[in-house]
């Protein structure tokens, strides 16, 4: 246990980015929450357990809770294992996301929308660039995400943001800024890792029809295995030079086929095909992404 946390700390510091990544890549027993994150809100509802290997976030009627990484990263690969709120989780939203600061912020979101007992969870993804989001895609999960830990990953580099569930790519948001589409892409603002459990009963579950059953509180989600292998800095050129496998990672033909199948089987909402929202036609990145 002694060397694991130190190793991840080195990764987090961004020292020897690529060399350390090779070591960290195979290690599923990742960082130590005591060293890697701060619990930032929730007044004791967030707890670090098992010597830093486990973190639980809970929500009751008065508050949810959340944490954030001590470091910020410009590009990287971010893995988190989550076990979502079991039983009746209607109205709850559990999150794992990356975000920079300020009104022109960039953000890469995984949000898990709870449901009534036995009804399926929804994975909600979104990408903000320069303060503008509205790029939601939602998926059904192909397993019960409340029974065991599953791994949710984001790879962010100058050309792609890829979302993975247990290693299966579900979304590839490409940098099209250089092409005719001219859609801004997160390339310069360092981001922190964030996680939270919060109350969104107004909209989260079946469009707000199913409210939170507060008699079931507290609602608890568990996190472990945060592995942030990124460049901890804000100098884009230096981060590009420091490299790391994530900097050049993109889906090969097999990965693209997996992505196509995941979209065909599990996607339940895509902003690109939402004709009610975009009556004048879909946003430019939708056409260019084909
Ligand atoms: C909850 O379950 C219902 C019924 O199966 C489904 O329509 C809905 O999409 C599920 N997810 C959410 C977040 O409401």
UniProtKB/TrEMBL annotation:
<keyword id="KW-0052">Apoplast</keyword>
<dbReference type="GO" id="GO:0048046">
    <property type="term" value="C:apoplast"/>
</dbReference>
<comment type="similarity">
    <text>Belongs to the glycosyl hydrolase 16 family.</text>
</comment>
<feature type="active site" description="Nucleophile">
    <location>
        <position position="107"/>
    </location>
</feature>
<dbReference type="InterPro" id="IPR008263">
    <property type="entry name" value="GH16_AS"/>
</dbReference>
<comment type="function">
    <text>Catalyzes xyloglucan endohydrolysis (XEH) and/or endotransglycosylation (XET). Cleaves and religates xyloglucan polymers, an essential constituent of the primary cell wall, and thereby participates in cell wall construction of growing tissues.</text>
</comment>
<keyword id="KW-0378">Hydrolase</keyword>
<dbReference type="GO" id="GO:0071555">
    <property type="term" value="P:cell wall organization"/>
</dbReference>
<keyword id="KW-0326">Glycosidase</keyword>
<feature type="signal peptide">
    <location>
        <begin position="1"/>
        <end position="29"/>
    </location>
</feature>
<keyword id="KW-0134">Cell wall</keyword>
<dbReference type="InterPro" id="IPR000757">
    <property type="entry name" value="Beta-glucanase-like"/>
</dbReference>
<dbReference type="GO" id="GO:0004553">
    <property type="term" value="F:hydrolase activity, hydrolyzing O-glycosyl compounds"/>
</dbReference>
<dbReference type="InterPro" id="IPR010713">
    <property type="entry name" value="XET_C"/>
</dbReference>
<dbReference type="GO" id="GO:0010411">
    <property type="term" value="P:xyloglucan metabolic process"/>
</dbReference>
<keyword id="KW-0732">Signal</keyword>
<keyword id="KW-0325">Glycoprotein</keyword>
<keyword id="KW-0961">Cell wall biogenesis/degradation</keyword>
<keyword id="KW-1015">Disulfide bond</keyword>
<dbReference type="GO" id="GO:0009834">
    <property type="term" value="P:plant-type secondary cell wall biogenesis"/>
</dbReference>
<dbReference type="Pfam" id="PF06955">
    <property type="entry name" value="XET_C"/>
</dbReference>
<dbReference type="InterPro" id="IPR013320">
    <property type="entry name" value="ConA-like_dom_sf"/>
</dbReference>
<dbReference type="InterPro" id="IPR044791">
    <property type="entry name" value="Beta-glucanase/XTH"/>
</dbReference>
<dbReference type="GO" id="GO:0009505">
    <property type="term" value="C:plant-type cell wall"/>
</dbReference>
<feature type="domain" description="GH16">
    <location>
        <begin position="27"/>
        <end position="223"/>
    </location>
</feature>
<keyword id="KW-0808">Transferase</keyword>
<dbReference type="Pfam" id="PF00722">
    <property type="entry name" value="Glyco_hydro_16"/>
</dbReference>
<feature type="glycosylation site" description="N-linked (GlcNAc...) asparagine">
    <location>
        <position position="115"/>
    </location>
</feature>
<keyword id="KW-0964">Secreted</keyword>
<dbReference type="InterPro" id="IPR008264">
    <property type="entry name" value="Beta_glucanase"/>
</dbReference>
<dbReference type="GO" id="GO:0016762">
    <property type="term" value="F:xyloglucan:xyloglucosyl transferase activity"/>
</dbReference>
<feature type="active site" description="Proton donor">
    <location>
        <position position="111"/>
    </location>
</feature>
<dbReference type="InterPro" id="IPR016455">
    <property type="entry name" value="XTH"/>
</dbReference>
<protein>
    <recommendedName>
        <fullName>Xyloglucan endotransglucosylase/hydrolase</fullName>
        <ecNumber>2.4.1.207</ecNumber>
    </recommendedName>
</protein>
């Amino acid at each position: 246990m002694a060397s694991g946390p130190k190793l991840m700390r080195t990764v987090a510091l961004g020292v020897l980015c690529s060399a350390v990544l090779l070591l960290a890549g195979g290690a599923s027993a990742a960082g130590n929450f005591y060293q890697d994150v701060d619990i930032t809100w929730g007044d004791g509802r967030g707890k670090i357990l098992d010597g830093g290997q486990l973190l639980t976030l809970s929500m009751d009627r008065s508050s949810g809770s959340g944490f954030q990484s001590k470091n910020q990263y410009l590009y990287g690969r971010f893995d988190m294992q989550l076990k979502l709120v079991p039983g009746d989780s209607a109205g709850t939203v559990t999150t794992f996301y990356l975000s920079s600061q300020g009104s022109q912020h960039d953000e890469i979101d995984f949000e898990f929308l709870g449901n009534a007992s036995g009804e399926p969870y929804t994975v909600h993804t979104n990408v903000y660039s320069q303060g503008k989001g509205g790029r939601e895609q939602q998926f059904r999960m192909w397993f019960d995400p409340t029974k065991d830990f599953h791994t949710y990953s984001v790879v962010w580099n100058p050309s792609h943001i890829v979302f993975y569930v247990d290693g299966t790519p579900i979304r590839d948001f490409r940098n099209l800024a250089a092409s005719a589409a001219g859609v801004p892409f997160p390339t310069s603002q360092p981001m922190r890792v964030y996680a939270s459990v919060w109350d969104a009963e107004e909209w989260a579950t079946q469009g707000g029809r199913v409210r939170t059953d507060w008699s079931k509180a507290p609602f608890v989600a568990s996190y472990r295995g945060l592995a942030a292998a990124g460049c901890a800095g804000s100098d884009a050129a230096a981060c590009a030079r420091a490299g790391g496998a994530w900097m050049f990672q993109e889906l090969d033909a097999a990965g693209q086929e997996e992505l196509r199948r995941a979209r065909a089987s599990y996607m339940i909402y895509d902003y690109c095909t939402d004709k009610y929202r975009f009556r004048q036609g879909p946003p430019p990145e939708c056409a260019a992404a084909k």
